[in-house]
Design goal:
The complex is a heterotrimer.
Chain A lengths: L1 H28 L24 E3 L5 E5 L3 E4 L6 H11 L1 H4 L22 H9 L22 H14 L6 E4 L6 H11 L1 H4 L6 E2 L5 E2 L7 H10 L13 H15 L15 H23 L4
Antiparallel strand pairs in A: 1-2, 2-3, 3-4, 5-6
Helix pairs in contact in A: 2-5, 4-5, 4-8, 6-9, 8-9
Chain B lengths: L9 H8 L3 H14 L2 H9 L1 E2 L7 H20 L8 E3 L11 E3 H11 L4 H29 L7 H23 L4 H15 L5 H9 L8 H31 L13 E6 H26 L5 H4 L18 H9 L5 E3 L2 E3 L1 H29 L15 H20 L2 H7 L4 H32 L10 E5 L5 E5 L38
Antiparallel strand pairs in B: 1-4, 2-3, 5-6, 7-8
Helix pairs in contact in B: 4-6, 4-11, 5-6, 6-7, 6-11, 7-10, 7-14, 8-9, 13-14, 13-15, 15-17, 16-17
Chain C lengths: L11 H23 L1 H29 L21 H27 L4 H26 L5 E4 L7 H21 L1 H24 L20 E2 L16 E6 L6 H7 L1 E5 L19 E5 L11 E3 L4 E3 L6 E3 L5 E4 L8 E2 L1 E3 L5 E3 L18
Antiparallel strand pairs in C: 2-3, 3-4, 4-5, 5-10, 6-7, 7-8, 8-9, 11-12
The chains are: A alpha+beta, B mainly alpha, C alpha+beta.
């Protein structure tokens, strides 16, 4: 039965080729697939104050700056001891007891945290990205935070005490913000990665722009000002008022869209619309045709 | 008939009117002027075959009707102008922004005009259903061989309708001048640019200059509202006229031959069913428009050439072009003092050109390759023409893969995969899937030919009890005299007064291997 | 023609189908063995099925022959409705009609009351739908069930008619040309020229000739880079990893400025950044400027990943490496993004040294540089 054997081989070979597509998919998604190891860049002076009101303490260290739109506060030094303890418990195993990190290696770099400013530290812990669960992954995704907000603030306080920097932990004043200005700024600066409806999407090489649907207002400011991960950092090119406007837009229209037309279809746009049109629209009508006509 | 003497008493008056009463008299008057009686009776006796797959074209037709009705509503409120105004209206995130009048009028339709949003969404959903049902209808025509002589012209008209509909859909959703559709216009401009020799002239002439062009929205508007719909209306009229003149095809079956049509008469049965279906299609479109939001342009904002959003796919009927553009490698070269942008020209111009020309030429090609120049009024079962069915399946597989390829970023995001790997996987799949689809479909067709009632899922099981008490069940055909499509002359009972059907060619099913 | 057991065809698909049918049959038998009472029910069902089969076969004989619709007697079985209980069906259809009409009235009320769009759509949708279903059901179940037949008359005309048609064209038309050859030739040529010239207003007036418009932007030596609000970008504005979209001063609100001149400035480092040989002065203090128009199809490349150092185009995911002159690493883009040479003036503002050294945006025929 060589002909049957031959036919079977050809069929299996074809199916194997067909399966090559998905196999390539899944092989690559597990772990870093690009040739360069993504570097967690260390940087000093992680942001310019960019504001008119700067308050320094007796030692000349900036403790608060900001205007009526956003206030940035450096966490008080009374939290330093608690922060140090929490840091040693949760972070030092990767970032070192001096918080100055581990240089780039094959598995992944654990960056130097000194001089990054309180907002950076607070953002990463408050969004649940740190402490990291899967250090082999290209990016740390947003998760349920393992530490409470006050614990995050404490850790930020201690790390900042090693080398005080900007920006502080922000509080936006949404009463003074303009939603329509925010919409225009969002379209120009944010939509390219996060999509115009704020649902996030896949970027290059297993990196992702996250969805903005469930992010609190102060984290939006932290992300914009500190540029976490692959996100660009908006410092001098966006004033506090502009950032405040963007936050207002994100926390209102992005997170609570009006959707007067019905279900929002997940913000996926024409892809989802095409599915519904073909499956629900044409498919259901074909079923009606099946009822009306003959089936010979 | 002179009415000089109208009798006064009612019974006599009734007798004078004739056996069909007032209606008859009115029709007499009509016939005096237009001579419609003969043709009218013939028309009402026209028989339409009943098979469910013949109704797919009706889905398209009635979606078009809905498009026309909702479209007229929209033209009363839409302003096709690119002049910039400042928006002040109920949608606050746009308040105070500089927008074009086209965008502003569309937002007003959605928020200010009563029923406006419903009409806009119905218009958009009807368009999506229109193209979807056109493709399904075309597939039915293709797989059953209804494009053969004498219906090649109808196939050509139908194909042209598909192209025009896709183009009109693109023009239509670009009219509101929002961020997502404006990106599509930019891409269309660049595709025109990429045509060798005449690209820059073409782009400048269609758009009136360098991008964004001086007259884009007004030109799109008049094309979308007047010029293309007129052509579509004319072609639909021709399509239906040919259908009535040549009569519809039918599947082989008991009593059905090449020389007759079996089904239901136009009036009243078909009229009832088809009018009811019109309401069903309208109703479903309204329900989709009520519950599923489509194209929320207020969230996208005014198009500006330096703004962009991610996840910007075109509407699904252009998806295969977008997918082709994404997966095609960056093969542009400069030679003989000129640039050849093949990475745009091949996927966006050459590939659809070849595809549609192949489709146009298919009736001719099939005549050449099968040597079959006969008139065909009976349809094939797809399994009886395995080569044609397999070819169609391969092309559909290719288009489906390209559609999926246009959603690489959405797929990568949803399944949390690397975007680059998804793209490579699609490059592989687009080649492999049609190559697998063809032989697989061919084989399945051949095997289905060999099985009686092969397409049906359930067969009855005859359960017999043996003497020892054992129960044995065997699958059997429904009736032992289940003659699939063998035809035998049926003696006509004598109480039917018309002539018996002539024993003309009995459309015995021919099977191709 | 009649088979008690279907023959087993060859291929794997057919064998699978036959096997699955056998499996169903075996499971039926097993259920009867497990539940003997089922056997009695099956027996009763079989008898009923036999009766029904006889009845249906008779029914089929009555109705399978298609007849012409004209000239039928009023009691002809072909004119009977399909429904077994026409009155029940009539009642159902009447209900559907009434519901549909009520819903349409509801739509009217919702419109008057300015209800939300989904209420308008739901009432109209369900109303039309139910009404339509009722109408279809009337046509399908209550009207003459048929099947009816109509003869197809020959579409083609007879041979003599065809010959007459051809004769008229060939002899009359041919005679025309033969006798007036010169006139015919001039007519043909004239119509051709007329057709071409008639296209001129339609084609030529539609838009200007491209000439050199595609080759230059509005960036000039010394142009200030301003953001979308018109504010000049200065050297302290961006931190490393920051990006801003800029235009030549004065063009930020014009169509051409946004469509052609749009540029991204990225800060890659704190010191002069050299992307390629010959561009040593182009990246002062780490500020690097690229055209924002993707070289694939012209979408704005606004997606910057600062750690991967990639500018990604959101349309078709072309990825440009910002450290080596925006050379495309992945995706369909064919050419690097043109780089704008920058310098920092005495007041600390970022300005352009020159226009781009090549046309920006997607490829076109007249473009000569790579």
């Amino acid at each position: 039965m060589t002909s049957t054997f031959l036919r079977r081989t050809v069929l299996l070979g074809a199916i194997g080729l067909f399966a090559a597509g998905p196999v390539v998919l899944f092989m690559g998604s597990a772990g870093a697939s690009n040739s360069k190891t993504p570097l967690q860049t260390t940087r000093k002076n992680a942001g310019t104050p960019n504001s008119s009101n700067v308050v320094k303490n007796g030692k000349g260290v900036v403790v608060k700056y900001g205007d009526k739109y956003i206030t940035y506060v450096t966490p008080p030094s009374s939290l330093d001891k608690l922060g140090e303890a929490l840091f040693m418990e949760n972070c030092a195993s990767c970032h070192g007891t001096q918080a100055n990190g581990v240089p780039a290696s094959a598995v992944g770099a654990y960056p130097d945290l000194v001089g990054l400013g309180p907002a950076t530290i607070d953002f990463w812990i408050d969004s649940g990205r740190m402490p990291d669960k899967d250090t082999a992954a290209v990016e740390a995704p947003r998760r349920q935070p393992a530490l409470t907000p006050s614990q995050a603030e404490a850790i930020a306080a201690w790390v900042d005490s090693l080398s005080p920097s900007y920006p502080g932990i922000p509080t936006p004043n949404l009463n003074k913000a303009s939603e329509s200005e925010g919409a225009a700024l969002f379209a120009l600066n944010c939509a390219a990665c996060h999509t115009i409806e704020g649902d996030g999407d896949a970027l290059a090489f297993s990196t992702f722009a996250p969805s903005l649907r469930h992010i609190p207002a102060f984290q939006v400011v932290e992300a914009i000002r500190t540029g976490p991960g692959n996100m660009p950092r908006f410092t001098g090119n966006l004033s506090d008022k502009q950032v405040d406007d963007i936050v207002k837009y994100v926390t209102t229209e992005i997170q609570h869209p009006e959707n007067p037309g019905g279900f929002g279809l997940g913000g996926l746009g024409p892809v989802a619309e095409g599915f519904i049109a073909l499956l629900v629209g044409v498919g259901f009508l074909m079923l009606i045709c099946y009822w009306i006509g003959d089936r010979s | 008939m002179s009415d000089a003497t109208i009798p006064t008493n009612p019974r006599a008056r009734k007798r004078a009117e004739g056996p069909y009463g007032k209606i008859g008299k009115a029709l007499d008057e009509l016939d005096d002027r237009l001579g419609v009686a003969r043709g009218g009776r013939t028309f009402m006796d026209k028989i339409f075959p009943d098979h469910w797959s013949f109704m797919l074209g009706e889905i398209a037709l009635y979606s078009f009707v809905i498009l026309l009705v909702t479209g007229v509503f929209l033209t009363f409120y839409f302003v096709p102008s690119s002049s910039v105004v400042i928006y002040h209206g109920p949608y606050l995130p746009l308040d105070g922004q500089h927008v074009t009048e086209a965008f502003e009028s569309t937002v007003n339709i959605s928020f200010k005009v009563r029923g406006g949003l419903l009409m806009r969404q119905m218009h958009h959903w009807a368009c999506d259903i229109f193209v979807g049902s056109l493709v399904v209808h075309m597939a039915r025509v293709f797989f059953t061989g209804a494009f053969r002589k004498p219906r090649e012209l109808n196939w050509t008209i139908g194909l042209t309708l598909l192209i025009l509909t896709i183009a009109n859909g693109f023009l239509g959703y670009s009219l509101p001048d929002d961020l997502v559709s404006g990106t599509g216009i930019r891409i269309a401009y660049s595709i025109l640019l990429s045509v060798p020799f005449v690209g820059s002239y073409l782009a400048f002439w269609v758009f009136g200059g360098n991008f964004p062009g001086s007259a884009t929205i007004p030109r799109f508007f008049i094309l979308h509202v007047l010029i293309v719909p007129l052509i579509i209306l004319g072609l639909v009229g021709a399509h239906l006229f040919l259908l009535v003149r040549q009569k519809h095809t039918q599947f082989p079956g008991p009593g059905k031959t090449e020389k007759n049509v079996v089904g239901t008469p136009m009036f009243p049965v078909f009229m009832a069913k088809t009018t009811g279906f019109l309401f069903v299609v309208g109703g479903l479109t309204a329900l989709l428009a009520a519950f599923f939001q489509i194209n929320p342009i207020w969230q996208f904002g005014q198009y500006q050439a330096s703004r962009i959003s991610y996840a910007v796919q075109p509407d699904f009927y252009m998806g295969f072009l977008d997918g082709a553009l994404r997966i095609f490698p960056s093969w542009e070269f400069t030679a003989w003092g000129h640039t050849w942008p093949l990475e745009v020209f091949i996927p966006a111009v050459l590939f659809p050109g070849i595809l549609f020309n192949l489709a146009y030429a298919w009736p001719l090609l099939e005549r050449k390759f099968t040597g079959d120049n006969e008139l065909h009024n009976l349809l094939d079962r797809p399994r009886d023409r395995p080569k044609r069915t397999a070819a169609g399946a391969a092309v559909l597989a290719l288009i489906a893969m390209l559609q999926i390829a246009s959603a690489t970023d959405v797929i990568a995001n949803f399944f949390h995969l690397s975007l680059n790997n998804v793209l490579w996987a699609m490059r592989v799949l687009v080649i492999i899937t049609p190559l697998i689809a063809y032989p697989l479909t061919y084989k399945i067709c051949l095997e289905l030919q060999g099985i009686k009632r092969g397409g049906k899922r359930k067969t009855p099981n005859v359960v017999t009890r043996s003497v020892e008490g054992e129960y044995i069940a065997t699958p059997t055909p429904t009736y032992s005299e289940d003659a699939d499509h063998e035809l035998h002359a049926t003696p006509v009972p004598t109480f039917i007064e018309d002539e018996s059907p002539s024993p003309a060619e009995s459309g015995v099913r021919t099977v191709e291997r | 023609m009649s088979d008690e057991t279907p023959e087993l065809p060859q291929g794997p698909f057919a064998r699978w189908k036959m096997r699955s049918r056998k499996k169903v049959a075996d499971s039926v038998a097993k259920r009867i063995v497990d539940n003997p009472r089922l056997a009695i029910e099956v027996q009763a069902l079989a008898e009923e099925l036999d009766e029904r089969r006889v009845e249906e076969a008779r029914d089929l004989a009555d109705h399978s022959t298609p007849v012409a619709i004209s000239g039928l007697r009023a009691d002809d079985p072909h004119l009977q409705p399909l429904a077994k209980n026409p009155d029940t069906v009539e009642g159902v259809i009447a209900t559907l009609f009434v519901l549909g009409l009520l819903l349409m009235a509801g739509f009217g009320a919702a419109y008057v009351l300015n209800a939300k769009p989904w209420i308008l759509g739901a009432t109209m949708g369900f109303g039309l739908f139910l009404f339509g279903v009722g109408l279809v059901a009337w046509g399908k179940y209550l009207m003459p069930r048929g099947p009816f037949v109509e003869e197809r008359h020959d579409l083609a005309s007879s041979r003599p008619e065809r010959d007459a048609f051809a004769a008229a064209i060939v002899e009359r038309g041919g005679g025309l040309v033969k006798r007036r050859k010169v006139l015919g030739g001039i007519l043909g040529g004239g119509l051709g020229i007329f057709g071409i010239v008639a296209m001129f207003p339609l084609l030529r007036s539609l838009g200007p000739l491209p000439k050199g418009t595609l080759f230059h932007t509005d960036w000039r030596k010394g142009s200030y880079a301003v953001d979308s609000t018109g504010r000049r970008v200065s050297v302290g504005d961006l931190a490393i990893g920051g990006l801003v979209t800029v235009y030549p001063e004065g063009t930020q609100n014009t169509d051409r400025g946004q469509a052609v001149d749009q540029t991204v400035i990225i800060r890659i480092s704190n010191e002069n950044f050299v992307t390629q040989k010959g561009r040593e002065t182009w990246g002062p203090k780490g500020y690097v400027a690229y055209s924002k128009l993707c070289t694939h199809l012209g979408c704005p490349v606004g997606l910057y990943e600062q750690q991967l150092q990639l500018l990604v185009c959101p349309c078709h995911q072309s990825m440009f490496n910002v450290t080596n002159g925006a050379i495309p690493q992945f995706g369909p883009a064919p050419r690097p993004l043109p780089q704008l040479p920058l310098y920092i003036d005495a007041s600390g503002y970022l300005r352009a040294q020159n226009d781009y050294d090549q046309p920006v945006g997607p490829g076109f025929w007249e473009r000569t540089t790579t």
